[in-house]
Specification:
Layout (H helix, E strand, L loop, with lengths): L1 H4 L10 H18 L6 H7 L3 H18 L2 H13 L5 H15 L5 H23 L4 H15 L10 H7 L8 H22 L8 H21 L7 H16 L1
Helix pairs in contact: 5-6, 5-7, 6-7, 6-8, 6-10, 7-8, 8-10, 11-12
Length: about 250
């Protein structure tokens, strides 16, 4: 699957969807060959079906909102907010970046498809006003992160609902922590692009070192979060392995 996604295997020869189906069949055959019991009930109990149907319903809702002019109205209001004396372009861009989290949809493509042209236009305007070419990619990266992660707190089939279901938590109990983490992570992602630039598809030595160092620091923080020392050997090894994986894959 990694080889297909990275296009090491030509898509016209073997598409990613076909690879996933073949991988599923192969895993089932290997399980049967190993003598593992595979009953229909066991398969359905671990196959997540509900978010798929909920996502379809969310897309239908998004289609209705689009047909009714809802997304166009949101874009128009944000353009108006840009000229509001106490808000200005920075405030309008901040609201636009966080809109996918405030009104979380089941998939980031819903808001991204509707508002990507506007976010590009407004970020380019800010870049020209400040004569800074890194603003536009930084804002777009921040918006993409926000939109792609917004399905976590979404009540419309968001992936956060899967965690709540497995942990037997009340619906929506994970929404606020996820939204709060997005409000922290989104500006940090945009700031990293502003400071270091957009990383190339094949990062150079300096960019690779930056990615590896960031991965190790994140692993150290994760170790501390779990109650261990930040110098825990397992956390450091995991950070190194994860950083190398990001660079290679």
């Amino acid at each position: 699957m990694i080889a297909s996604a990275r296009k090491w295997i030509p898509q016209q020869l073997l598409p990613l969807q076909s690879v996933m189906v073949l991988g599923t069949v192969l895993i089932l055959l290997l399980s049967l060959a190993a003598g593992l019991p595979l009953t229909r009930g066991a398969l359905f109990s671990v196959t997540t079906l509900h978010p798929v149907t909920a996502t379809l319903a969310g897309f239908m809702l998004a289609g209705v909102v689009e047909a009714a002019g809802g997304f166009a109205a949101a874009a128009h209001l944000l353009r108006k907010a840009e000229h509001f004396k106490w808000l200005g372009l920075p405030g309008a861009i901040f609201l636009l970046m966080n809109l996918p989290t405030l009104l979380a949809m089941p998939c980031g493509r819903v808001w991204a498809a509707a508002l990507m042209p506007l976010i590009i236009f407004m970020s380019r305007s800010a870049g020209k006003a400040l004569n800074n070419r890194t603003i536009a990619p930084a804002v777009v990266v921040a918006f993409i992160l926000n939109a792609s992660a917004s399905c976590g707190p979404s009540p419309l089939g968001g992936i956060g609902g899967i965690g709540e279901g497995h942990l037997r938590l009340k619906s929506g109990s994970m929404t606020m922590p996820q939204m709060f983490s997005l409000y922290i992570g989104v500006p940090v992602s945009g700031l990293s692009v502003t400071l270091f630039g957009v990383l190339a598809a094949s990062p150079g030595l300096g960019q690779s070192a930056l990615l590896l160092g960031t991965s190790i620091v994140c692993a150290m923080l994760c170790s501390r979060l779990l109650g261990y020392s930040i110098w825990h050997r397992g956390g450091l090894l995991a950070g190194i392995f994860n950083g190398i994986g990001i660079i290679v894959l």
